[in-house]
Amino acid sequence: MKLRWPQTLARGLYGPCRILLGAIFIYAAIAKLGAPQDFADSIAAYHLAPGPVISVMALGLPLFELACGLFLLTGYFCTTGLLSVIGMLVLFLAALLIAVVRGLPVECGCFGAHSWLDANPLVALARDGVLLAGAVYAYRHSLARELEARKNREVRS
Amino acid sequence: MWKKHIIKDAVGGWMLLTGCLAAGIILNEMRAKPLPLAYASPEARLDQAVERLGEGKPVPVRQTGDVSLEEMQAISAGRSALILDARPEVFYRVGHIPSALSLPRDDFENSYHVLASVLEPRRSDVLVVYCSGSDCHDSQMVADALQRLGYAHVRLFRAGWGAWEDGNLPQEKS
C-alpha cells in the first residue's frame, strides 16, 4: 500500500490547527471581555477608527472572537468561523502594519491590556501572520471536506 | 461551487459580527459601570475625574525638576516624600518602590478617594510620581491632575519602575 504523506499530514494537521486557533480566539476574547475600556483605549491608539465606532468595536469584537473560537472548537459552522477569523486577522495585520509604518507607539492589545502575551508590534505582526497562514490552510481544508461530503451525498442519492 | 460557499460563509460571518456588536451594546447596559458609547481618551477621562473631584484653589507650582534614581533611593529609604505609583494597580501589586502608594491613572478617581485621608493633609509636601518608565505618560498625567487638585510640589521620577528594577533595588509587593 502506497503511503500518501502530504495528504495524511494535511489531514492530521487540520484538527490541531482548528482547535489551537479556536482556543487562542477564546482566550483573547475572555481577556478583553472584562475590560472594555482598556480595549477601547487600545483601539483608539491605532488612530484608525472614528470616535463613535471605538466603543462599539470594544464591546462587540470580543464577543465575535468568542463566537468564532467556539465554532472552531466545536466544529459547528466551522467554515463560517474560519472565514471570520481570516477576516479579523487580515484587519489586525493591516492595523498593526499601518501603526508600524506611522511609527505609533501602540501595544498590540490582542490579548487585552497589560497582557503577558503583549508584544512589540513587529512580533505581533509575525504572530498574526502565522495565525493567518494557519487559518487559511484550515479554511481551504475545511471547505474541501465540506464539498467532498456534499458530492458524496449527491452521488448516493 | 467554491465561490458560492465562500459567499455563504462571508454572509454568515457578517451576520454574526452584526449580532455580536448588537449583543455587546445590550450587555454593556447591564454592567454595573457601562462603557460610555461616546469614547473619551484617557486624558479626557482624567480631566473629567479632576472636575468631579473639584479642582483646588490655584497654587503656585514649584518646578524643581525630575527626581534621579539616586535621589529616589534616598527618598524611598528616608521616607522624605510621599511616593505615588501611577501604573495600573495590577502592576503595583506585583512589585513597587518601597513606601509607594498606588494612585493609578486608569482608576484615578476611586484611588484618590481611597488615599484622600493620606493625601489631603499633605498638599504642600513633596509628592513623587512614577510609572513604568520614560516611555509612559501616566506619571505626567497624574502629576498634572494632582497639581490641578491643589498639590503644589509634585515631582516626577521619569526613569520609573524600569530603572528601579534594572538597578536591582529593593521592592515591596502587596
CATH architecture of the largest domain in chain B: 3-Layer(aba) Sandwich
What do the pLDDT scores of chain B average to? 90
Structural class by SSE content of chain B: alpha/beta
User: How many beta-strand elements of chain B?
Assistant: 4
Total number of strands of chain A: 0
What portion of residues of chain A belong to β-strands? under 5%
The quaternary structure here is heterodimer
Low-confidence regions of chain A:
none
Largest interface: A-B, 34 and 30 residues
Major beta sheet, strand line-up of chain B: 2-1-3-4
Tell me the CATH superfamily of the largest domain in chain B. Answer: Rhodanese-like domain
What sequence of helices (H) and strands (E) makes up the elements of chain A?
Answer: HHHHH
Domain module tally of chain B: 2
Distance between the first and last residues' Cα of chain B: 61 Å
Count of distinct structural domains of chain A: 1
Largest sheet report of chain B: 4 strands, parallel
Helix coverage percent of chain B: 40-55%
Structural class of chain A: mainly alpha
Number of separate helices of chain A: 5
Keywords:
heterodimer, A: 157 residues, mainly alpha, 0% strand, elongated, B: 174 residues, alpha/beta, Oxidized Rhodanese, domain 1, 2 domains, four-stranded parallel β-sheet, 7 helices, 4 strands
Describe the structure concisely for a colleague:
The complex is a heterodimer of chains A (157) and B (174). Chain A starts with a helix and ends with a helix.
What would you note in describing this structure?
The complex is a heterodimer of chains A (157) and B (174). Helix content of chain A is 79%, strand content 0%. In chain A, α1 (5-33) crosses α3 (51-74) and α4 (78-102) packs antiparallel against α5 (121-156). Chain A contains five helices and no strands. Chain A is mostly helical and 157 residues long. Chain A is elongated and about 55 Å long. The longest helix of chain A is centred in the last third of the chain and has 36 residues, at 121-156. Chain A has helices at residues 5-33, 36-45, 51-74, 78-102, 121-156. By secondary structure, chain B is of the alpha/beta class. Chain B folds into two domains: 1-38; 42-166, Rhodanese-like domain (Oxidized Rhodanese, domain 1), CATH 3.40.250. Chain B has helices spanning 2-29, 42-53, 69-78, 89-94, 108-119, 138-148, 160-166; strands at residues 82-85, 101-102, 126-130, 153-156. Chain B has a four-stranded parallel beta sheet, with helices on one face. In chain B, β3 (126-130), α6 and β4 form a beta-alpha-beta unit. In chain B, α2 (42-53) runs parallel beside α6 (138-148). In chain B, 30% of the residues are buried. Chain A binds chain B through residues 36-38, 40-41, 44, 51-52, 54-64, 67-68, 77, 79-80, 82-84, 87, 105, 113-114, 143, 146-147, and chain B through 1-2, 5-6, 9-10, 12-13, 16-17, 20-25, 27-28, 35-39, 41-42, 88, 90-91, 106, 135.
